[in-house]
Amino acid sequence: MRQVWWNGKLIPESEARISIYDSALMFGDMVFEMTRSFNKLQFKLKEHLERLKQSIKYVRIPLEMTVDELRAACYEVIDANDPEFEPDDEHRLMINVTRGLLSTYKDVDIPKGPNVIISDFPLRWTTAGMGKLFDTGINCVIPSQRAIPASLLEPKVKSRSRMHYLMANIEVAQHKGENNWALMLDPDGFITEGPGYNFFIIKDGVPITPHERNALRGISQRYIYELCIGIVSRANIAPYDIYEADEAFVTATPFCMLPVTSLNGIAIGDGKPGSMYSEILKYWSKQVGVDIKAQIQTWDRGGNVGASTYSFK
Amino acid sequence: MRQVWWNGKLIPESEARISIYDSALMFGDMVFEMTRSFNKLQFKLKEHLERLKQSIKYVRIPLEMTVDELRAACYEVIDANDPEFEPDDEHRLMINVTRGLLSTYKDVDIPKGPNVIISDFPLRWTTAGMGKLFDTGINCVIPSQRAIPASLLEPKVKSRSRMHYLMANIEVAQHKGENNWALMLDPDGFITEGPGYNFFIIKDGVPITPHERNALRGISQRYIYELCIGIVSRANIAPYDIYEADEAFVTATPFCMLPVTSLNGIAIGDGKPGSMYSEILKYWSKQVGVDIKAQIQTWDRGGNVGASTYSFK
Amino acid sequence: MRQVWWNGKLIPESEARISIYDSALMFGDMVFEMTRSFNKLQFKLKEHLERLKQSIKYVRIPLEMTVDELRAACYEVIDANDPEFEPDDEHRLMINVTRGLLSTYKDVDIPKGPNVIISDFPLRWTTAGMGKLFDTGINCVIPSQRAIPASLLEPKVKSRSRMHYLMANIEVAQHKGENNWALMLDPDGFITEGPGYNFFIIKDGVPITPHERNALRGISQRYIYELCIGIVSRANIAPYDIYEADEAFVTATPFCMLPVTSLNGIAIGDGKPGSMYSEILKYWSKQVGVDIKAQIQTWDRGGNVGASTYSFK
Amino acid sequence: MRQVWWNGKLIPESEARISIYDSALMFGDMVFEMTRSFNKLQFKLKEHLERLKQSIKYVRIPLEMTVDELRAACYEVIDANDPEFEPDDEHRLMINVTRGLLSTYKDVDIPKGPNVIISDFPLRWTTAGMGKLFDTGINCVIPSQRAIPASLLEPKVKSRSRMHYLMANIEVAQHKGENNWALMLDPDGFITEGPGYNFFIIKDGVPITPHERNALRGISQRYIYELCIGIVSRANIAPYDIYEADEAFVTATPFCMLPVTSLNGIAIGDGKPGSMYSEILKYWSKQVGVDIKAQIQTWDRGGNVGASTYSFK
Amino acid sequence: MRQVWWNGKLIPESEARISIYDSALMFGDMVFEMTRSFNKLQFKLKEHLERLKQSIKYVRIPLEMTVDELRAACYEVIDANDPEFEPDDEHRLMINVTRGLLSTYKDVDIPKGPNVIISDFPLRWTTAGMGKLFDTGINCVIPSQRAIPASLLEPKVKSRSRMHYLMANIEVAQHKGENNWALMLDPDGFITEGPGYNFFIIKDGVPITPHERNALRGISQRYIYELCIGIVSRANIAPYDIYEADEAFVTATPFCMLPVTSLNGIAIGDGKPGSMYSEILKYWSKQVGVDIKAQIQTWDRGGNVGASTYSFK
Amino acid sequence: MRQVWWNGKLIPESEARISIYDSALMFGDMVFEMTRSFNKLQFKLKEHLERLKQSIKYVRIPLEMTVDELRAACYEVIDANDPEFEPDDEHRLMINVTRGLLSTYKDVDIPKGPNVIISDFPLRWTTAGMGKLFDTGINCVIPSQRAIPASLLEPKVKSRSRMHYLMANIEVAQHKGENNWALMLDPDGFITEGPGYNFFIIKDGVPITPHERNALRGISQRYIYELCIGIVSRANIAPYDIYEADEAFVTATPFCMLPVTSLNGIAIGDGKPGSMYSEILKYWSKQVGVDIKAQIQTWDRGGNVGASTYSFK
Questions:
Q1: From C171, which residue of chain A is nearest by alpha-carbon distance?
Q2: How far is CA A53 from CA A36, A44, A57, A96, in A?
Q3: Are residues E88 and E157 in the same domain?
Q4: Domain boundary among B93, B122, B151
Q5: CA atoms of A234 and A211, how far apart (whole Å)
Q6: Which of the listed residues B78, B94, B122 is the one where a domain comes to its end?
Q7: Disulfide engineering: A126 pairs with which of A184, A254, B129, F288, CB 3.0-4.6 Å?
Q8: What is the pLDDT of residues B169-205, one digit of tens each?
Q9: Whole-angstrom Cα distance, residue B125 to residue B123?
Q10: Is residue A127 included in any domain, yes or no?
Q11: Cut 0.90: pTM above it
Q12: Chain A nearest C-alpha distance from D66 (Å)
């Protein structure tokens, strides 16, 4: 059975449960990161853990662990679980940090102090059903629910106080058609992010992503800079710009990049996954030695992918 | 040991823990109510449960339980725990409803579907240290953190996605002096509520509480209407109005009413608990047969209060 | 053939066309009213014309006609067209006022100065397909498109510069299900109106309609005051309030009142047309001597309604 | 007599009239472009038509015509009308696209479906009285009327739902002095555009125009980039910046560029048309083979300009 | 020569000067009141001084003087100056309170601590030229300059930090026509106040003045409640409401009430001072024993008014 | 005794007092500049005077003096005062410009017209107590008071209408700890400036300062560009960015640069003055021939600094 790292101990996954008296369940007071591996090697783990430290600092959880200690814990849980995984599985980590039991409830028979909880599960859980989207593309839908601006709730802090993300998802599920994913506007009418992914358009050969104001600073988003040698720009993106764009895509850790082929049902470009999108995805795949699209599609077909399916000439 | 009601079963309090894969811990996607008893009789339980049903409806958790079933569950847990309580304890219930395990994690060995979790603990936990405030009053402090307006996150839905409440509390803890409680403005500069309590001023004999826009509709707040036979008004309250008020107080379930004697360190009225405040509190105590202030102060002194301390001539 | 009144002359309906050089087609610079009859008698015509005069005044169209002259023109066109109408038809008037040819285009061979254009057509055109809604109710849907607040474009001026109404309608047409009608929020998140109708909830026996800020002052809306002897209130209405309401309905000149039975797919009350709604509609029908619901449903069935179908015991 | 192209037919200009039942006259639901020629050659016609296609796409008018077909139609009407024009006239096209008759009015005896209407008239109509402004400059005045931000009504869509432009013009006409042109702020207090023109300042040799947020993307505005080999920047421009600027000017298709010599009556720079402005205008004139200023001033004097008045050494 | 009361001493008016190192001249950090007499009797002096105390409290000037002591000082200066006044003069007091010398400048040879400065001058200075407005009425003009909302700068605190009032006045002076007075909107587009006066409309016999949000709580404004036995209401007033009103007027201490006969040049009601306005003014005159209008008009003509010009039958 | 330059005359400092009837004391209607010397040589005096002229232009004070005349006046007062100064003193000038006596008060025995008032005092007055901050750094605190955005009150105009700056200072004085300086957010949640200083972070070797929107354009701020050869960027800076920064500092004329070592009590970088900060300060010191830090610290110790304490190898 899969194990979860909890404050230095490994416990069974089904025991990874947080007391209802923990601040996490009182205020959504938990910060977290979620990672993935390529060929079982964690990708950008240091960047994830540094962002986690920023979140911890911002919300003032008094946790002493360093990035190195957190990293060691991550590898401990991976090592423990790997035998349980399929050979072609990738490790998806969820690293949660809570402030711990509220002092009001100090008489409850539960340990005090912050909790660091690292769980590890197959990435294919998260990507289930996404395989076809690499071919069809996503239809982004702008819900009535607006993103909460950073002045009120900082989205750059990756916290669990994000009911509005779920409300956006629920709203978009009311729309006709398939493959609808929410894309949220801030109150000024600019694109921020989806609930769990960053957004890009490509116009005249340049990937453009929203200003850093009201969205998480995605690690996949930032990796696009690396892949494109910095030829990426930031802008206030309004729906008009998307309709006028040549291509669009979203980025997130589990699927890396998925094409967006329409907005509110109106085709972007020719309504198909864009060629520059495909080039970047291929280059990403090459960098990490995994055919990202093929891996996810194979999982969706229930098939097995070898650890080295992706080779470039 | 205290028991917790969980989907129909009673489990030990220390086992009342929610899986990290539950939607509650992904999005703050849990709605709740917290109640209290007077002389061991639950107060306004029906109103609390009806508000809970509204929260459930708003966030679309597919829960079938009726208000009557919820009420029965509440009494079941009270009956189970009462022998563990001191004779002078009051029962504070925390009723949590989660959407349950996210479908992504369906392979985790955890039951699926919504969870209803009712815990029951001594009210004195919550009121610890508040006894003296009935005499000194609170100094409300307006933090830089603004309330999130209802258009972005509905505060009338009592959810756990409220990191900004905690941030307000942390900020106010940086202020000099004692007895500082946060009082939040909305982005328009009007008083909304504190993190967990409603706010009133009294001006020319009339209690005034903020418009219903950007605050929870407090059950204690509404009870003030009953106690004052409806002579309560709603207004946009700005800090200027508080400085000009004769008295001020806050309301919440555990302590009912506490006086606010200053705002940002500037005295309200004569800087002492107001006489009308005291009258209403006395009347409330009489209605429920418990001297609210004496009970909490006795608990704070570690003393015992009999079940019938409060008698009116 | 139906005739249209144009600056004092009657012309064929198909000739009621406005030059592309008219300010109306440059800026949406046309104000208007639309009325209806009951048993061929115009309803609240004076109120409509007075509101039209306010619109004209606000946008500063230099028109000299008085309300009485406008009324005379209305009756002139009705008299001319009545022989063309079915016996059970009602007269729907559309009264448009444009500023006229922009001076830039003074050399175009078109008359100068404001145009008053009154057309008259069967009300059944407008109500086509609405009959069933009296029984099923409407599902109001809140689109991402927000109402433009009065500080930027005054909705109390009934002008033709309202592309955002159409955008809201188009957006709502993307939603699943049937009978979806747009209900717009202002940027503060409060209900304003639909594109062409006002909105009410009923809570504890009191009809409540939004504050007068960001919506047209509907003549049907105001008539609800008369029918309810003033027991109507104004409030900031948020979606939460609608979910909590007992009933809801919309008002507009052609259909008078239609029940709203859900919001964004969530049932309001028991999800059926409300009893108070039905009472008010019956009372309205009685006042005007026409069974409003039966008339529209009969038209939808292609049947004929006599002029005196509605009698009260 | 001038002809207008209407869905493939040429009709007399005075017959270019749109039914009052067309969506254009219900909602301001018409998108358009206006062009001009230099020496009878259309300028940037392709760019205008591509922008028109974007407007059509955004508002979802189901029009099938391609840019090439639209262009062919433009030339057809020019060819038909040229004999009616003076030898020194330029062709100003107005290309309107409406959604067509609303389905409610399907029984009116009028064709259904979108309408493409291309009219063609002498540019001198539009520029009448502007000749002197090349020498005196414009006094821009900031009215109380704010621009509607793109989040509520997208100004990059060139639609006819723009009553607020007219309201701004009317308001500015109440100001003392002459040559007052409206310059609109958005609700954040930044310059957007005038009703029909874009705005530039020049500071330290660099033309600066507002960020792309809340203004039409002007084709003349973009041409300044070409003329200045890209040395143009975008900024949030507040009135303070204009008072501090060295020069200012506005751009629009009919007059290309006009100097702005004061804002709200306060001189910009030395209060005279700027030297860099003059250089750019000269360069523009050279590029198109027409002395833009001389042409418009000659028309204003009632004189005739030859087709080749402008030659550069 | 007129004397000024300065921290307990009387000094010549020309010496009533505040050091450039006083906080008043660093931050506009001075609060004040201005009063008037009727027949040499101060009107509502207590209300003015109580409001002054609120201002002092809000900005935290550590002044010990009580309302009674302030009142005594007022009468001291009046008594000293009265022999210098004309028999028909009224005493206008200006009561300024500064925080005093900033501690940075403690070495400047100037007394430390708060300053209370009470000057006293003929009311006719302030009302000069206003006489005719009782007959012509004012044309209120809405400038582009918006009122600063209370959340940013509390207008209920009567401070000298009000450059934006002056900017509004300057802007309105650019408008055509005469008798233009600024009337400011808040950023939401609602009427607040003029720079120094409150605003009322009358609709269907009820005086209506803006909600208390973003305007000074005028003492004359409040006196209208007394004169109208409370039949006054509060509302969000937009320009549309003014155009629709029957009458309008402004209130302020020096002139009490002046009619507003147009807004932005558009007539309100019949464009003449309203009858209800005149009734209220007459009643006010009767209450205070001074024909308010006649007194100011007589001063404007350079004539003398006796102390008892106003008698009612 | 120190002299003050007043409209061409030198008067004793204690006589530099402004009439209570001056517009400066009615509306905060005074614009100003404050400068300093290095080794008795004025620094960037021309830039200060040009900015002053922009302020004068913006608020429309009809002053005729040129920058050269203003500069001559500055030197006149410096020459007059220098003998009164310590040898190691620096000259701090305060240049105030008022609109002058309001016309209402024209009968007061005071000169009319604008006033130019230049005072000159030892810089050590202003820097008193700041010496230690070069070593400890400042703790910036974000108050609830927001900066007034430029659309309502232009902060680039250096006026005396800035009560909100003082309110921010007062609020921050309520915080625990020492060395707390206010740092204001605009209503969008972005850093603007402190009351009298600009703000910078350093991230990856690049100094970053807020966009020019809602803050004074500081002359010291701009000098950082010179010192860093333009390697400075502008950004929307939110608190999150500060927590993530490597260093932070503030700039203002008297102290040039002070390190910011924490925000709201959370350490920035390692919580000590940053190394790049120190480098820039050293470079600045070298450019002006004064060891800025040593000079201020010496003054604080009551010691004397020679005019040439700072020499570079």
A1: A264
A2: 18, 14, 6, 11
A3: no
A4: B122
A5: 5
A6: B122
A7: A254
A8: 999 999 999 999 999 999 999 999 999 999 999 999 9
A9: 5
A10: no
A11: yes
A12: 15
